[in-house]
Write a structure and sequence with these properties.
Helices cover 6% and strands 29% of the residues. It has one domain: Galactose-binding lectin (Jelly Rolls, Sandwich). It contains 1 helix and 9 strands. By secondary structure, it is mostly beta strands. The protein is elongated. A hairpin with a 3-residue loop joins strand 4 and strand 5. The strands form 3 sheets. A 4-stranded antiparallel sheet has the order 1-9-3-7, with no helix packed on it. A 3-stranded antiparallel sheet has the order 2-8-6, with no helix packed on it. It has a two-stranded antiparallel sheet with strand order 4-5.
């Protein structure tokens, strides 16, 4: 029985003396496998990058037009800044008269409209709740066409300044 055990051990191949690298894996994977208790690799969060910046003039009824946005692609639109609007008060992409936080004037929903050429009490999109930093973001689905951005107001003669509209896409 002793000889059988010695013979069996003699047929085995031992490698990896102390300090030497582990044997190469036999399953085609490069390098050692992760230990079973290692945390799974996490993908990095998506990174957004500015693809275009538009300046929306609050003193003009003329819209600014972007480059075409790819159909079926989700973009982020980010509106920032303040300007002088309606009787010398400050306004941003969605609100004006900040101490009172008004969204609408007498006959218009004031703010930046996207693909919304009709000035009325329903400016689209809704940029969300008031933000003291005057930064608003929404998601926007591209259609293969450009978007137009216009400051919505019925009287532009008492407005001055521009608001910034950035278009973001995933990298």
């Amino acid at each position: 029985m002793k000889w059988a055990l010695v013979t069996l051990l003699g047929a085995c191949s031992f490698s990896g003396a102390e300090g030497s690298p582990p044997p190469a894996p036999e399953d085609g994977v490069d390098g050692p496998l992760a230990p079973p208790d290692a945390p799974p690799e996490v993908d990095a969060p998506p990174q957004w990058r500015v693809v275009e910046t538009l300046m929306v003039d609050t003193a003009s009824a003329s819209p600014v037009v972007s480059l075409p946005l790819a159909a079926g692609v989700t973009y982020r639109l980010r509106a920032t800044g303040t300007a002088t609007v309606i009787d010398g008060l400050e306004g941003d992409a969605e609100y004006w008269d900040f101490p009172n936080r008004r969204d609408s004037g007498c006959c218009e929903d004031v703010g930046i409209g996207i693909d919304d050429p009709i000035i009325d009490l329903d400016t689209r999109p809704d940029w969300g709740p008031y933000n003291e930093a005057h930064i608003y973001e929404i998601e926007w689905m591209g259609t293969g066409a450009a978007i137009s951005a216009q400051y919505q107001d019925t009287y532009y003669g008492n407005n001055s300044g521009t608001l910034t509209l950035e278009i973001y896409a995933l990298q």
